[in-house]
Amino acid sequence: MLSAAPSPGERLAGWCQTGGVRNEQVFSVRGDAELAARAGHLFASARTTFLCAARDLRTWSQPELRAAMVSRMRAVGSPGLTARKLLSPVALADEEARAHLRLVRDRGAGVRISAAPLPHETILIDGRVMILAGRESPGGREYTVTTSQTLIDGVASLLEAIWDNSPDLTAYLHGDVPQLDADGRMILKALGSGLTDETAARRLGISLRTYRRRVAELMAKLEADSRFQAGLRAGELGLPR
């Protein structure tokens, strides 16, 4: 029996785990600090395209170093520079992450959410430099930096296939809209009215305990950590309030 053809995500994982290129085209560093020291200038060199594909947003143990490197780049939305982020759904795990990605999108970057498996992090700069992040380890994550055009072109083609088949951030979020029943819509409307719990419960004709339980259920359904976030999430999803 013939085995099923590997998906773009599976082929990408294979590319990211194999080499076959000359040593002078590849070097590895250990940890965020060494990457910043030896490859930080590459971020500033981006002129036409910058693509970051990752499982989630927590790929660096020292986020301040990443922020410093990214700050050296041309601003997202600059003429001639196309910036894109391709992420797994886990990157939308909390409201802070979603807010960050909306900000990135609003500044002009493309953001898409992939159902296909993605590596820990892959960065492509101008189609001429690639940075691959390995697994986290006690000694720091290992990063591989390569200028091998064969390797870059192979990974780039697979990422493009995944990108083309992934919804953008807005479409993905709206495609994941929770279904609210009549009670849920009434609770959401009460939250948006600014009423106290006691007043809202009385107007809805339910006990205070029942009202608060339904508020908690609604927050869980909207994946919100607070009532304020529930309101933001409802607005983001276009739910009537």
What's the structural domain tally? 2
Could you tell me the CATH topology label of the largest domain: Endonuclease, Chain A
CATH class of the largest domain: Alpha Beta
Largest sheet: 7 strands, mixed
H/E element sequence: HEHEHEHEEEEHHHHHH
Find the structural class using helix and strand composition. Answer: alpha/beta
SS elements, strand count: 7
Strand content: 5-15%
Do you know the CATH architecture of the largest domain? 2-Layer Sandwich
- Count of separate DSSP helical elements: 10
What number is the mean pLDDT?
80
Strand adjacency order, main sheet: 1-7-6-5-2-3-4
Describe the structure using short key phrases.
7-stranded mixed beta sheet, 15% strand, 10 helices, 2 domains, single chain, alpha/beta, Endonuclease, Chain A, 241 residues, 7 strands, Arc Repressor Mutant, subunit A
Tell me what you see in this structure.
By secondary structure, this protein is α/β, with parallel strands linked by helices. The protein folds into two domains: 8-174, Endonuclease Chain A (Endonuclease, Chain A); 178-237, Arc Repressor Mutant, subunit A, CATH 1.10.10.10. Helices cover 46% and strands 15% of the residues. It has ten helices and seven strands. The protein has helices at residues 8-17, 32-44, 63-71, 95-106, 149-164, 169-175, 182-193, 197-204, 208-221, 227-237; strands spanning 26-30, 49-54, 82-87, 110-113, 121-125, 129-133, 142-146. It has a seven-stranded mixed sheet, with helices on both faces. Helix 3 (63-71) links the parallel strand 2 (49-54) and strand 3. Helix 2 (32-44) packs parallel to helix 3, helix 7 crosses helix 9 and helix 8 crosses helix 9 (208-221). The termini are far apart. 24% of the residues are buried.
